Amino acid sequence: MNIHEHQAKALLKEYGVPVAGGVAIFSADEAEAAANSLPGPLYVVKSQIHAGGRGKGKFKELSADAKGGVRLAKSVADVVANAREMLGNTLVTKQTGPAGKQVNRLYIEDGADIARELYLSILVDRTVGRVAFVVSTEGGMDIEAVAEHSPEKIVTLAIDPDTGVTAADIDKLAAALKLEGDAKADSQQLFPALYKAFCDKDMSLLEVNPLIVMADGHLRVLDAKVSFDNNALFRHPDVVALRDTSEEDAKEIEASKFDLAYVALDGNIGCMVNGAGLAMATMDIIKLYGEEPANFLDVGGGASKEKVTAAFKIITADPNVKGILVNIFGGIMRCDIIAEGVVAAVKEVGLKVPLVVRLEGTNVKEGKAILRDSGLNVIPADDLDDAAQKIVKAIKGQ
């Protein structure tokens, strides 16, 4: 689960992390009061969407030369003017895709006098099975670009869970970021505080880009991106309360109600598979034959008829889907349960696109019989390769 920048900063502030003062607003009428509550005279007006690259983004409804989704304002009147222009419009960034995201809230923040921009993130490093810091002196940039062109400028430091962030760890991170004076002193408190927030709240990612050294020599978190482990949300009702469903795909929200692992993609072949590995292989082979998957959908090993029905309905709700591939290897999951769910869903919502079904494993004969006797126009497949070729041909009318 993701949250907005202003929510992330409020959470981090509870751990003593240095952030600027700011106010979230939801209408342009709130902009003047928000700005007047801050010291000024420099303000930053930030679009709050769940996507990066906001500063370089473009609004669909505005002219090509209009400013992006993060803007400097030198007066209260400028804050108000920017708020009126940004709220309600669609911001397109490198992470939103061409559809963009509508800006429904802004964060009016006190400006900062920046001397240096740094990069810092905390994540789970699965290569060593520990939480790790990733830092770089190249703040404010796309970290993937830094990794590609200047990998030597990125330092990763795994933290021993038994000790937490030690004095030696702090020294290593401070050295990697070339911190001196007040900034180095601030890091003594900052790095442990960020690590504690990450662990306490079961985060999966905490990214600060940029972490700045201000003109007065002190550190400040200028931007913050936080994601949480969905499997741990039951422990954090305060975090769940921060969820903004308007930033999420409606199909993914529906899938979460049935505990389905679903991710919407940009392709045209809907996939229903059991098992993450098999789902990835199914998407790969669809691409191999020249088409694109419309989703990742893992119904899991013990799905019920109702769960399978819900999964099928979610796939068919996507207007981009031109064909559906059901690929099931029945171990714990029984093929007859899958077949019953597919038949129930088709009878409820109809079938307007080609459907290819490949079943193998537990109760495969019963499953195939259910589909065969249903009267549905189902294209059977013998194996995954056969299934992929058949669905690609079907959507092309071959």
TrEMBL record:
<feature type="binding site">
    <location>
        <position position="109"/>
    </location>
    <ligand>
        <name>ATP</name>
    </ligand>
</feature>
<dbReference type="GO" id="GO:0004775">
    <property type="term" value="F:succinate-CoA ligase (ADP-forming) activity"/>
</dbReference>
<keyword id="KW-0479">Metal-binding</keyword>
<keyword id="KW-0067">ATP-binding</keyword>
<feature type="binding site">
    <location>
        <position position="274"/>
    </location>
    <ligand>
        <name>substrate</name>
    </ligand>
</feature>
<dbReference type="InterPro" id="IPR017866">
    <property type="entry name" value="Succ-CoA_synthase_bsu_CS"/>
</dbReference>
<feature type="binding site">
    <location>
        <position position="117"/>
    </location>
    <ligand>
        <name>ATP</name>
    </ligand>
</feature>
<dbReference type="GO" id="GO:0005524">
    <property type="term" value="F:ATP binding"/>
</dbReference>
<dbReference type="InterPro" id="IPR016102">
    <property type="entry name" value="Succinyl-CoA_synth-like"/>
</dbReference>
<feature type="binding site">
    <location>
        <begin position="53"/>
        <end position="55"/>
    </location>
    <ligand>
        <name>ATP</name>
    </ligand>
</feature>
<dbReference type="GO" id="GO:0005829">
    <property type="term" value="C:cytosol"/>
</dbReference>
<dbReference type="GO" id="GO:0050074">
    <property type="term" value="F:malate-CoA ligase activity"/>
</dbReference>
<comment type="pathway">
    <text>Carbohydrate metabolism; tricarboxylic acid cycle; succinate from succinyl-CoA (ligase route): step 1/1.</text>
</comment>
<dbReference type="InterPro" id="IPR011761">
    <property type="entry name" value="ATP-grasp"/>
</dbReference>
<dbReference type="InterPro" id="IPR005809">
    <property type="entry name" value="Succ_CoA_ligase-like_bsu"/>
</dbReference>
<dbReference type="Pfam" id="PF08442">
    <property type="entry name" value="ATP-grasp_2"/>
</dbReference>
<feature type="binding site">
    <location>
        <position position="112"/>
    </location>
    <ligand>
        <name>ATP</name>
    </ligand>
</feature>
<comment type="pathway">
    <text>One-carbon metabolism; formaldehyde assimilation via serine pathway.</text>
</comment>
<comment type="function">
    <text>Succinyl-CoA synthetase functions in the citric acid cycle (TCA), coupling the hydrolysis of succinyl-CoA to the synthesis of either ATP or GTP and thus represents the only step of substrate-level phosphorylation in the TCA. The beta subunit provides nucleotide specificity of the enzyme and binds the substrate succinate, while the binding sites for coenzyme A and phosphate are found in the alpha subunit.</text>
</comment>
<keyword id="KW-0816">Tricarboxylic acid cycle</keyword>
<comment type="similarity">
    <text>Belongs to the succinate/malate CoA ligase beta subunit family.</text>
</comment>
<keyword id="KW-0436">Ligase</keyword>
<feature type="binding site">
    <location>
        <position position="46"/>
    </location>
    <ligand>
        <name>ATP</name>
    </ligand>
</feature>
<dbReference type="Pfam" id="PF00549">
    <property type="entry name" value="Ligase_CoA"/>
</dbReference>
<feature type="binding site">
    <location>
        <begin position="331"/>
        <end position="333"/>
    </location>
    <ligand>
        <name>substrate</name>
    </ligand>
</feature>
<keyword id="KW-0547">Nucleotide-binding</keyword>
<dbReference type="GO" id="GO:0004776">
    <property type="term" value="F:succinate-CoA ligase (GDP-forming) activity"/>
</dbReference>
<feature type="binding site">
    <location>
        <position position="223"/>
    </location>
    <ligand>
        <name>Mg(2+)</name>
    </ligand>
</feature>
<keyword id="KW-0460">Magnesium</keyword>
<dbReference type="InterPro" id="IPR005811">
    <property type="entry name" value="SUCC_ACL_C"/>
</dbReference>
<dbReference type="InterPro" id="IPR013815">
    <property type="entry name" value="ATP_grasp_subdomain_1"/>
</dbReference>
<dbReference type="InterPro" id="IPR013650">
    <property type="entry name" value="ATP-grasp_succ-CoA_synth-type"/>
</dbReference>
<dbReference type="GO" id="GO:0006104">
    <property type="term" value="P:succinyl-CoA metabolic process"/>
</dbReference>
<protein>
    <recommendedName>
        <fullName>Succinate--CoA ligase [ADP-forming] subunit beta</fullName>
        <ecNumber>6.2.1.5</ecNumber>
    </recommendedName>
</protein>
<dbReference type="GO" id="GO:0006099">
    <property type="term" value="P:tricarboxylic acid cycle"/>
</dbReference>
<dbReference type="GO" id="GO:0042709">
    <property type="term" value="C:succinate-CoA ligase complex"/>
</dbReference>
<feature type="binding site">
    <location>
        <position position="209"/>
    </location>
    <ligand>
        <name>Mg(2+)</name>
    </ligand>
</feature>
<dbReference type="GO" id="GO:0000287">
    <property type="term" value="F:magnesium ion binding"/>
</dbReference>
<comment type="subunit">
    <text>Heterotetramer of two alpha and two beta subunits.</text>
</comment>
